[in-house]
Amino acid sequence: MTQIVPDTIQLVATLRPFQDEIEQAQADYTAFVAELDKNRIVKRIDADNLRLDFTTIQQQVQSLAEELTDLRDDLDDLGKLPAVGTVANSLILTLPEWHAHIDTLKSDFDALKTLIRADEAIAKYLDNGGRRGIFSRKPDLDDALIMQFTSFDQSLVDALAGLATFETDQLPTLIEQTKTGVDADYEAQIAHAETEMHAKMDAIHARATAVFDDLGAVAREWQQALWESFIRKPTRPTTFPDVIRLGKYLGDDARGATVPMLIPFQTDKHLIIVANTDQFAKAQALLQSIIMRLLLTVPSGTAKFTLIDVTENTLSFAKRLPKSFGGGGLLRDADEINDGLQEALHHIRQYSQEHLGIVYKTLTAYNAQAKIFVPYHMICVADLSNGLNPKAQERLATLIERGSKAGVLLLAVVDKANRSVDLSALMRESVVISADSTGFSVGDMRFEPDSLTDKTLLGNLLAGLKD
């Protein structure tokens, strides 16, 4: 009759494959960034090398100019080839356009040399040392050749002037713009890679969180949308829960998933929240959440609830509990509390006599094989340190000592600083939730406590509990 649901320790173990995926996504991102870093360095070096590239272009033009000067000297005796001294065309080109322009100049120079050597007499003159040779008659340079020679000389003068302007006005800006572009592209790729990595991790987290979606009401958060199906069509569970939700698990091994804090629901142990004064209100809110969770997850007829709240601030919903859960109102004053504890002691004696003995040491052991389930009795106390007179304290001590074995369980909040309760004896017989300056925890497992603050949701859930 028990519902087998994994607790938080077991749930966290199921997250290991998802963590492996997350670590792989992070490793892929790290490797990608490392490659980007290398490429960025290379591209920034390439940007600095633009000056070397430019220098190479400049040297090529200067080399052409020197070759043209040598050719002019060789042809000087054949006709006047004046050197061009002024710029005719201000060239404003990009670096790739300069590369193309240099290729054109080289091609034009080859064409000029071919034209000059097309005249057999001039070719022979050049091959025999030019003016250093002895000829009876020197060949003449025709006007077309002189014009083409001068035109090419002008092209070189214009190119050298354009390159000088490019070096001062464009090259520094080009280098900086190229580096800026490299950096901007790097940042854009980093941002895209981060977005992709986070999207992958969100998807992994969503799949990890989905592992818990099938746990049902025992692990469901207090959100209206998550309880709509129950509110529309309330149904009672048929199996007794073996875990109880306390809140959201905060351990690092949750690996980013929203893991419910589930602890084994031990029906042979009391459940108490030992709280510092500054955490007391949150502890009471958690107690209310635990009680509501049990009301929604225990099958009909398997548990009776007695609610004690002197201030009526925490467990006031007791007035709306159906009779099947022991709904007899909220116990507030000393007489009501005494009567409630006396009834609990009666159940302890009755259950011990009828069901416990040599074979079964606890009601939990008896119920594990019983054909007819004996209901547990939950004594829920909003403040175990408040409203108990000496008689009630005496009965409480008996309940603490003998109740858990007989299935009469104390669910309560107790102020750690209060001395009216034997805290050490209580803790020996209980599952203990600690609420101190570091937060809420069970053992070394930290969690964010649940709190059912939505009054509309609380009303709808209580309405679904009607007999």
Describe this structure in words.
The chain is rod-shaped and about 145 Å long. It has helices at residues 8-13, 16-48, 50-75, 95-118, 120-127, 143-210, 228-232, 280-297, 334-355, 363-367, 390-402, 423-428, 455-463; strands at 2-3, 240-241, 243-249, 260-264, 270-275, 303-308, 376-381, 408-415, 430-436, 439-442, 445-449. With 467 residues, it is of the alpha/beta class. It has two domains: 1-211, no CATH class; 217-463, Rossmann fold. Strand 7 (376-381), helix 11 (390-402) and strand 8 form a beta-alpha-beta unit. 52% of the residues lie in helices and 12% in strands. Helix 2 packs antiparallel against helix 6. The strands form two sheets. A nine-stranded mixed sheet has the order 4-3-11-10-9-5-8-7-6. A two-stranded parallel ribbon has the order 1-2.
From the alpha carbons, calculate the radius of gyration and give it in angstroms: 46 Å
Number of domains: 2
> Going across the major beta sheet, what is the strand order?
4-3-11-10-9-5-8-7-6
Binned strand content: 5-15%
Count of DSSP H/I helices = 13
